[in-house]
Amino acid sequence: MKTSFAALFIAAYAFSISASAGNVQIQVLDRDGKPVPDAVVVLYPAAGAAPAGSLLQAAPTIEQERMRFVPALTVVAPGTRIRFTNQDRWDHHVRGTPVAAAGQATAVTNEGFEMRLAGKQDGQPAQTADVTLQHPGVVLLGCHLHGSMRGHVFVTDSGWTLKTDENGIARFAAVPDGAAQLRVWHAEQLVDLPRKSLQVQPTPVLETMQLSVVPRPRRPAPAAPSVPAGSSGGAAPHMHY
Questions:
Q1: Fewer Cβ atoms within 10 Å of its own Cβ: the N or the C terminal residue of the chain?
Q2: How far apart are CA 62 and CA 65, in angstroms?
Q3: What is the reported pLDDT for 238?
């Protein structure tokens, strides 16, 4: 009995600590009310405090694998070095094109970039190239050689930024109490949703944002074609944009 009472006490205490931390849960739904994975959720607390630990990857890698960008969406802070790695046996000519995205706090945009990555050879490491995007904004990824390849890099202007999971949910812990602005971005939501005002408090905050579109499911990876032995090359130089 004592053990059970102690366990209940610890559980209740842990819940109270969690609730007082200002937990915020955002679910993104499509036009039909279904969860949307890979939406970007951005919080702007009025207090301006940064998260205790970074919510974003410090050194992300975007792989070109079976003619897809993996992951399809990468979220980074300004100044983050992003590595592109070609895991396919055929060449890719990757391009990055800045796209207009309303709602960013700055009008300065990143420059476009291009890189040619040779196909991976048996017994050799995959070829890589690095890019650094200095300004908040959205960059559309494509390939000059394979028109079906498509991806995005979202350079955020807030440390409180997450991608939604398979249930369309982004969970933020220890958000500063007080007023906050909520922004949601999705690659197929061509007109940005208006920001929503939140009031963060010790009790958990649950909020829903709904897109005006139904995003298309990502195409499956194609079967690997047979490619004759051919191109090879060294690593491309690192580029700043």
A1: N
A2: 9
A3: 46
- For residues 119-143, give the mean pLDDT: 95
Three-state secondary structure call for residue 135: coil
Q: How much is the CA Rg of the chain, to the nearest whole Å?
A: 21
- pLDDT above 50: residue 6: no
CB within 8 A of 92, min separation 6: which ones? 64, 86, 116, 117, 119, 143, 145, 146, 149
- CA distances (Å), origin 156, targets 1, 71, 80, 124, 237: 51, 17, 11, 35, 25
How far apart are alpha carbons 241 and 232 in whole angstroms?
26
Tell which residue, 148, 164, 155, has the closest CA to residue 218.
148
- Continuous segment of H or E residues that includes residue 10: helix 2-20
pLDDT at position 232 over 90: no
